[in-house]
Design brief:
The protein has 627 residues and is an all-alpha fold. Helix content is 73%, strand content 1%. It has helices at 2-6, 13-23, 25-44, 51-76, 84-98, 108-132, 137-155, 165-171, 182-198, 201-211, 213-218, 223-249, 260-270, 282-301, 308-324, 331-348, 357-366, 373-379, 383-412, 419-444, 452-467, 474-497, 503-522, 532-539, 548-564, 567-577, 579-584, 589-615, and strands at 174-176, 180-181. A hairpin with a 3-residue loop joins strand 1 and strand 2 (180-181). The longest helix has 30 residues, at 383-412.
Length: 627
Amino acid sequence: MTAVADSPLPPPAPQIWRRRLTRGRGAIIAGLVFLLLLALVDWVGAGPLTYFDVSFLASGGATLALAAIGQTLVVLSGGFDLSAGAVISLVNVTLASRMDPMAVETSVALWTIAGIAVGCAVGAFNGFFIAVLRLQPIVVTLSTMFILQGVTLLVMDKPGGMIAPELGSFYLGDAIPGLLPMPAVLVGLVLLAWAWLKGTRFGTALYATGSDPDAAAAQGVDVALTRFLTYTIAGGCYGLAGVFISAQTGSGDPLVGNPLLLSLFAAVVVGGTRLGGGQGGPLGTVFGAYILMMVVNLLLVLNVSAYYSTIAEGTILMLAVLAGSLTRDSALATHLRALRGWAAARAGGTLPSRLPAVDRRLRRLHAPAPAPAAARTAEAPPFLARHGETLRYALPAYACLVLVVAVTELWLGRAAFSWNYWNALLVLSSFLAVLALGQGAVILTGGLDLSVPWTIGLSGILLTGMVNGSDAALIYALPIVLALAVLIGLANGIGIVWLGISPIVMTLATNGVLQGVALLYSQGTPAGFSSPMLRWLMTGRLLGMTPVVPLLALFVLFATLLLGRTPFGRRVYGIGNGLRAARLAGIPVERTLILVYVLSALSAALVGVMLTGFSGQASLGMGDDYL
């Protein structure tokens, strides 16, 4: 009787349903928005929706939905995967270059398994470095993205190849003629596989790892194995998306997956999955993918330029993240409470800056006296003790530099030590050196700025458009471009600091918005030319060297002093060593972080200006190679 009395009673049915509704709120809202947009498409269209329209919608969003399901699993585990688009491109060119379209019979199942296997292999590669070697997911997947882009170009350096017609007939056909399109069945089967997987021990471990990995490990969850399997399964989803887009396009394109990265994160967030892990699921993500596709289609139906699509996706991503974080404990709510407290203190005259002068004098009198200069000198630790941590990271880089110089000498002989060679090398290095100041400061604070590529591109496009070969126009064009960069940095910093949006998501969304703005401004074809003065700075000669080389030396000196000898630099390092400790030490964390992102945007804009002087004009995607 005692055992029965002490056993916990199950919660009542209404409470169970309330919990389920709370957990699935994101997917429910996404589903309602999907139905609303579907009704809007029906209303805007020339006639009522037909089966052909439904089939077209199903196939149009299937690639994004399949890949976003994989990204959802990674986000649920608490990570990010920036290599998803590159995996899709690799699978696409692999199939297009290896399939024989003239074969009498093509095995759809075999090529589908091959595409999934390629994706799983890449996912296992990511999972090994993240789960086993415990490297940061952002660093690993970003590196993997660039590695795969190189491998993809080795497989196929330009669009071409051909996909067997059987693959397209199978994936773009009907599962039940006139009733059920095959793309919807494919997405449904993946969702059913997830429903089964969610009920297994792996599904439980996935949510536990994303919620709190330390607590999950304390409960016996193998966190490393869970993360490894998550990235492997996610890679398989990207591979399946690559197979589907191959069937859809009928050919190979080494860049086909690159534009999907922003859409993937937008679909995940719109679908209600929480960035940071532990809450959400692929069902909402599928709704989110089709919501994004229908928004783009509606823009086209309303005769809105396709260049607005990335602006719409970036804006939707930021708004979705912001809507999901509007809670009492959110960063925005915290800052609003602090602002109200500051306003109340100001109204009551209790701000430190408004205290009576006698109080400030008393505080200075009671403050401890600084130690004598001799004592401070005697207490200073030796050089190696003060700089040991820095040398541990810097010395391998210098060793690699020496090794590269030695290999260059063996490969090129005397040409490697000619001044012309080193002058050209320094000019090409100047772009990365300038970027290193801004991006390096961001990384020192624990963030990452993914808006660099199109900050560079937009800056270059705007400058050449305004200058158009005139030195006189440079006087007002350059300040305008730099002022725009300040606004970009402020937008990133305010979104990250005040709104609490993840740096990865905020800067990725900003990059998409900037891409759309650049396309709209240039109408897809950048016009104008760099000014002769800027051309001379990047390609001319002064005392036997390119004029930018001595300026590069001054810039490196400035950057070293800024980060190593100024209060701003010390604050950056303090924030990087620990956010909470930095606040307790009195560092103005919010203001410093915003300034860091402004510095990153200014550095990127300066590189855009330099690139126009180096090449003579701007081009779309001119900043992509510098991420």
